[in-house]
Amino acid sequence: MKPLIERHRRLAVRCPKCGTHVIAAVPPAIRGTPFGPRLHAVATYLKTFQALSYERLQAVLSDLFGLPISQGGLMNMLRRAQGCFQTRRDDAVAVLRRAEVVASDETGVRIEGTNAYHWVFRCQGAVVHQAAPTRAASVVREMMEGHRPKVWLSDRYSAQQGHAAAQQTCLAHLARDIAYAREASDDPLPLRLELWLRSAFDLASAITIFAASTLAAKRRSLERRLAEILEAPTTCDLARDIQRKFRRARDQLLTFVAFPGAVDVTNCESVRAARGT
Question: Any idea which fold 90-168 has?
């Protein structure tokens, strides 16, 4: 593939009598950046979505298109492209700051050779990505700007706790811990917790078809079963560790029942958004 290059020549003349030097006006087409919108789009996609470094992006454009562009030129190109997204991002942040249910997740990333974090905030009407040098709760507070939703969905990481009136713990995280315990231990307690989680997932998948009284009864049943499991004696260290995790999250496991159809029981959508999958 070869780039389409349009060359412009400006005529410059000098009067033989008075010596005045006259140069043709700059065509509107070449004012500003010499790179067109398609190249801006490709560079932005490769840099942000595919997470290429400036060095690798420079090599890709050179190898695929024969375009030798300096890293400074690429940086300016991306800065120009940023303005195209700012209005829509502001709109998404505004939607997030009005949402009643918010989910969040973060993952470590390298940004130009420096350790940083890629945060994702998600609600029904918007998904907001935020790069930050820290994993602290200050990132959440800055993003929400004082807004306190009814429910916050996340894992058990402390920086993602306490930002809403109620908290829903991601059950998928606990399911992974249980799966490991089942493989590594012969104790029956991980299996009992796995069956309990299946019941919780089944309730979540069909929650909108139940009456309020039925939901209350099912929640009480799940709470009784969980209490029995958490009090069950065990000699397995892995099983005891799982019990402790469930005890700490006990009041955040069934929050979704009080908000039928509005609160997910897993945070998988945020994880996929953070990974770009």
Answer: Nucleotidyltransferase; domain 5 (3.30.420)
